[in-house]
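Thread: "does anyone have the structure for this chain?"

Original post by V.I.:
We have the sequence but no experimental structure in hand. Need at least a predicted one for the grant figures.
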Amino acid sequence: MTNFTIAVASPPGHGTQAMAFGKHVIRIMAANTGGSLGMFEAIVPTGEGPPLHLHEREDEFFRVLAGRFGFWCAGNYVELAEGGCIALPRGVPHRFRNIGKTEGHLMVVVTPGGFENFFSIIELCKPETPEQVASVASDFGLIFLPEGDSRVA
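Reply from O.Q.:
Generated one for you, tokens below.
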């Protein structure tokens, strides 16, 4: 991995698509930032979003580029529309859902970087069972939790 000593840009329309758990576009990779951060965009259909989970390694920053989203984190609930931002700490159970009437679009920054590769690896491996998905997820420090987990309202 190289040191992060020069600017890293991702012009409009650039990035690597990953079609796993919906559409993601990897815009900046940890390999280009000395591991400091990664950034991707998530295109989320109405009513969709990831299950309750936590990241052991990364903090996450979300900016709503389009649509309306609900975020649940450690017993708190926040609704955000276009332009809204939220930062979620590592190790804390959370989830989000597109609660709008149209497809939503999020910018997600993870720090340190590395998690942005999860979606490409899932697309490549094509796990077929929840156990296989959990195995790939564990390589990224991602843990899926039961929906009734008492740590989230």
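V.I.: this helps a lot. Residues 16-144 form a domain with the Jelly Rolls fold (CATH 2.60.120.10).
O.Q.: and The radius of gyration is 15 Å.
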